[in-house]
Amino acid sequence: GQPASFAHGEQKLDSEPTNGRIYVMYHGTTVAAAEQIIKNGFRPSADGMLGRGVYVSRDEKKAARYPLGDKSDQVILKLHVNVGKVKKIDRQDHPMQKTWHDEGYDTAWVPKCCGMVDSGLEEDCVWDLDRIKVVWIVKAPRGHFRKLKELFIESKK
Question: Which residues form the PARP catalytic domain (predicted)?
């Protein structure tokens, strides 16, 4: 197939991700989970609003809502995500809400303000872990950033 092209310039968060493009996205998590992600890659959530996959967003504000609860342990990872073939899921009980991957899609995309996400922010669920690459640590608790950065540099060798 065609090599993926990078989505340059200002990302319009309300526009549907274009098939085959690489987007900057974000993932919010804990220090311990971030260490595992940097060392060993993502592990998909077993289930969620869009079923199995890794939940990410082009909107850093969405990633900043995770982990739920206490934010003192929060890490936000910046990613490059090759979205592949994208399916828009814009309402609860959408017929492909959890079966989009079985229908040949690589990423499910929930548009902002469609009523599916309490925050109203966009969300994406990516099935294939090889489509997601950590490119930097945007935020980490004081005292943990250096260790995460060292792990990140080590993982690139």
Answer: 23-101
pLDDT value of residue 126: 98
Burial code (b: 16+ CB inside 10 Å, e: under 16) for 100-119 equals: bbeeebbbbbbbbeeebbee
Q: From CA 77, how far away is CA 105, in angstroms rounded?
A: 24
Contacts of 119 (CB under 8 A, 6+ apart): 61, 62, 65
Q: CA–CA separation, 70 vs 49, rounded Å?
A: 22
**Token pair 């690489």: residue:** 22
Evaluate whether residue 69 is within a structural domain.
yes
Which range of residues forms the domain containing residue 142? 14-152
- Say what the pTM is: 0.89
Q: 31-40 and 145-155 helices cross at what angle (nearest 10)?
A: 10
Predicted local confidence at residue 11, as pLDDT: 57
